[in-house]
Design brief:
The structure holds two protein chains of two kinds. In chain A, the strands form two sheets. In chain A, strands 2, 4, 5, 6, 9, 10 and 11 form a seven-stranded mixed beta sheet that branches. Chain A has a four-stranded antiparallel beta sheet with strand order 1-3-8-7, with no helix packed on it. In chain A, β7 and β8 form a beta hairpin. Chain A has no helices and eleven strands. By secondary structure, chain A is an all-beta fold. Chain B is mainly beta. Chain B has no helices and nine strands. In chain B, strands 1, 3, 4, 7, 8 and 9 form a six-stranded mixed beta sheet that branches. A three-stranded antiparallel beta sheet of chain B has the order 2-6-5, with no helix packed on it. Classes of the chains: A mainly beta, B mainly beta.
C-alpha cells in the first residue's frame, strides 16, 4: 500500500516561491509515477504535471510551464513541487498523487493529504 | 471553464439512484480515452472511485458504476446512502491538454 505524506501549510507573499514535499512509503519513488494536482478554495481539481514513464521525463501542464518545477530525491523517496512567481490565484491545496495505467488511460490511484498554500501580502 | 462538463449539483433521497454525467469532446472522451471518477468527501483528498470507464478498485462498493458512450461518461450510484454525500469528479486525457478533470458535481443526499 502506497502512503504519501506531504509537508505542512505555507503562507507566502506575492512574487515568492514555494516548495512542497511528498514523502513516499510502502513503495520506492522509482516504482511510481508521481504527479501534482491543485484545488483552489471551493473550486475543482487541476492537473499541474508529473513524471511520464513512457517518455522518461517530467511533463507540465501548459498553464504552469516556466513557473513550476517537479523534482524527486530517490535517496529519501521524496517528491517536490516548486512553484515560483506566486500570485493570489495560486492560493490552493496542492496534492501529490501517483499515476497508474498507460499514458492515455492513466489515472490517479493514491493521493497525499494535501498542502494548503496561501498567497497573501 | 473545465474541458469536461459536469452538472454542478445533483441530489437524491436515501435508497434512490442518481447519475452524474461528464461531457467531453472529440479531443478527449470522444477520441476513445478512458474516463475515471473520484469521490472527495468534505475536507479530504480525492479518492479513486472508478477507473477505465467502469472498473472499481478494491473496496469500492458495487453501488457505484461507470459507463461511457461517445463523447460522454456517467457515474451511477444506487441505493444512495448519507455517506455518499460528497463532490465527484471525472477525469480523462485530452490530446492538447493531457490530463483533464471535470468541474465537479456536488451530491446532496436529501
Amino acid at each position: 500500500q502506497v502512503q504519501l505524506v506531504q509537508s505542512g501549510a505555507e503562507v507566502k507573499k506575492p512574487g515568492a516561491s514555494v516548495k512542497v514535499s511528498c514523502k513516499v512509503s510502502g513503495y520506492t519513488l522509482t516504482e511510481l509515477s508521481m504527479h501534482w494536482v491543485r484545488q483552489a478554495p471551493g473550486k475543482g481539481l487541476e492537473w499541474m504535471g508529473g513524471f511520464d514513464p513512457e517518455d522518461g521525463e517530467t511533463i507540465y501542464a501548459q498553464k504552469f510551464q516556466g513557473r513550476v518545477t517537479m523534482t524527486e530525491d530517490t535517496s529519501t523517496d521524496t517528491a517536490y513541487m516548486e512553484l515560483s512567481s506566486l500570485r493570489s490565484e495560486d492560493t490552493a491545496v496542492y496534492y501529490c498523487a501517483t499515476v497508474q495505467g498507460y499514458s492515455y488511460g492513466s489515472y490517479f490511484d493514491y493521493w497525499g493529504q494535501g498542502t494548503l498554500v496561501t498567497v497573501s501580502s | 471553464q473545465s474541458v469536461l462538463t459536469q452538472p454542478p449539483s445533483v441530489s437524491g433521497a436515501p435508497g434512490q439512484r442518481v447519475t452524474i454525467s461528464c461531457t467531453g469532446s472529440s479531443s478527449n472522451i470522444g477520441a476513445g480515452y478512458d474516463v475515471h471518477w473520484y469521490q472527495q468527501l468534505p475536507g479530504t483528498a480525492p479518492k479513486l472511485l472508478i477507473y477505465g470507464n467502469s472498473n472499481r478498485p478494491s473496496g469500492v462498493p458495487d453501488r457505484f458504476s461507470g459507463s461511457k458512450s461517445g463523447t460522454s461518461a456517467s457515474l451511477a450510484i444506487t441505493g444512495l446512502q448519507a455517506e455518499d454525500e460528497a463532490d465527484y469528479y471525472c477525469q480523462s486525457y485530452d490530446s492538447s491538454l493531457r490530463k483533464v478533470f471535470g468541474g465537479g458535481t456536488k451530491l446532496t443526499v436529501l
